Structure formats: C-alpha cells, structure tokens
Amino acid sequence: MPHSTHPSIRLTGDGSPTLQLPDCEVTYHSLHGALTEAQHVFIEHGIGSLDLPLDASIQVLEVGFGTGLNAALTMVWARDQHRTVHYRGLEPHPLPSSLWDDFPWEKWPSEVSACMKRLHGMAMNTTASIFGENTFRWDQISIEDDLKTEGMYDVVFYDAFAPSHQPELWNHDLFRSLRQSVRPGGILVTYCAKGVVRRNLMAAGWDVCSLPGPPGKKEMLRAVNHPVDRFNVRVYGLILDAAGDRVLVCNERLKDGSYAQKFPGGGVEFGEGVLEAWWRESLEELGCQPAMKSAQLFHTADPFVRSAFRKEEQVIALYYLFQMQSDQDTTWTEEPASSPGGEPQVKVSWKCWRTLDYRTFRFLTDQTAVQKLQMRSGELNL
Prior knowledge:
Order of helices and strands: EEEHEHEHEEEHEHEEEEEEHEEEH
Distance between the termini: 50 Å
Helix content: 10-25%
CATH topology of the largest domain: Rossmann fold
Shape: elongated
Structural class: alpha/beta
Largest sheet: 8 strands, mixed
Number of strands: 18
Number of helices: 7
CATH architecture of the largest domain: 3-Layer(aba) Sandwich
CATH class of the largest domain: Alpha Beta
Radius of gyration: 26 Å
C-alpha cells in the first residue's frame, strides 16, 4: 500500500530492526524478531526445504519485497549452500531511498547488511548478479499484473501485509493464478496462518499444511502445488428426523486410525449411479434403509477440494437431503452408537442441525454442507 508518511524504525525482540507505518500502524516484520521470523519462515521452511537436485537453479518469487531482508538472507544462503538462485521481488510501493541513510545497519549480521545495501542500490526493474551466478531483480509492479508465466517459480515468499490491511492480496482468485505460475511440486510459504488464508489457498488448489510458527506466532503456512489428475466423486446424505429438527451424524474410525465426524455416504464406484451409490453406502454404514421422503439434491461442494488422503485427486461431493417418515424405524438416538448390521467402526447419532458447529466436522465438504443447511433453513421443504 502507498506510504503516506515516512516509516519509523523499531527494534524487534531479537535485536534486529524493522519499519512501522504510522498511517496504518503495521510493521514490515514481526516485533518478536524480524530476523528470526524471516529466517524461520522463508529460509528454513521455504527455500531450504526444497527437494531439488544440487545442480538445479532455484527460481524465487517474493510478493512484498519491502525492506529486502528475505532477498538478502536468500542470497547469503545460496552462497553458503553453493546453490544458484534467480530471485525476483515485487514491490509496487518501494520505500524511499532516503530512509536508508539513518538505518541501523549494525543491528543486522554484517553479511546481511552488505547484501541489503547492494540490493537497495540497484535500479528498479533491472537484473544484477549477486554472489557469482545468483541473480536478483526487483520490479515496481503488483502481483496482480505479473502472473503471466506458467510453471516458472520453485518457491514463492508470500510476505504481503496482513489480510486485515491488504485483503485484496489474499483472495482465492489471486492464489489460483499464482499457483499456475509455480512448477508442479513448487511451494508457497507465508507467515500468515489465518483461517481465511488457509481456506482460500485450499480452494485455489494448493495442498496446505500448518507448520510451527516463529516466536510470537503459533503457526505459519506452507502450500504445495501438487498436480491433480483424477476426480473422486462422492455422495452424502443429510438425513433429518421426522420432525425436521435433527440431522444424522456419523463418527467413523478411518483407515489411518483417526476419527472423523462426517455425514453418512461415500465414494461412487464405476458403473454406479449417484443415488445408487448413496443407498449402497448408507446400507453399509447404517445397516438399514428406513423409509424416507424422496431425496432432493441440496448441495454440490464448490470450489476446489483436494482429497485428504490422495493428493492427486479432486473431490466432487454431492449432498442429498432426506427426511425420515417415522423415527420408529431405527434405533438411532442422541448417543453415538453402532447401528445393528452397520459397520462397527461407524457410530451414528442425532444432532440438532440448527446449533451444529461446522468446525467439529473433519472434512471441508461436510463443513460447507453444515453452513449451507443452517443458512437455508427457511427454504427447507419439510
């Protein structure tokens, strides 16, 4: 964002300096430790985590060049690791050159300070060699205007200001376009672990995991551009009781030994219709097929969802709404228990759907189905 006033210098928890913008009261780095945060997020869990041949060059894109700390640390890392790095930083609002006259360079490690001074001495929109074959370029351009090259970058350092200050840089469409600029297997790392950022990355096709954060932050995010080459079509049922007040929920022990709260249903097999698959799955899990009112397609999961167990698969999930004709046909209660004749690892129970917490469901498609059920309560034809 444009700087309406001159940034002020602040020392952080590890003794290294950062900048603060008085007009929006945000800092360029964590106040718990600027150097520590950059090293942890972008070097250790970013470029240092790549699994590439030692003779392969590494293409780096930084969104939010800022002070240049991440770039300087990367160049020092490349020199020490005998790697070749081609680094590109994007910064639509570069800091004024006069800022560096009084900057406390002595607070940085000497090699980092020397590299940062050299980077800031370069003209914008130019490329120069740093430490031998390593190259650096920084462009006065926004990320929205840059994403033209497919499959070019190995790692993206996403270091924009927080979503509360720059929400336009953390949206689903931008993350999708960015993924197309990253090679298969390439990664994106960011200090920001907010739920909205994680969800937008996942919806854009990234395989996202949380990692321990730097001091002062519980978590950070690392996203991998795993290719998707097949669909996994699944069908689930939202079974309401005869009064329409409760929905049937399963608590299932999965193959990996973990438990997941979910709705009854499962995968569609080849040569099988969607509703046919639902009736088969419901009989397997619930052990019965009680009389219910005719099914209505209620929800189709969107946007993109990756399989939690097979990264190469995209999940297409359909949710049908059912209502029991009578609650006397089954033994289901509000206490989780296996159904007679059903799979023993599945326990079922009734829950009030109006007060159901979507966060108690493990899978994203179930979570969105709960939210949609609650939002459309007035439209249900019960």
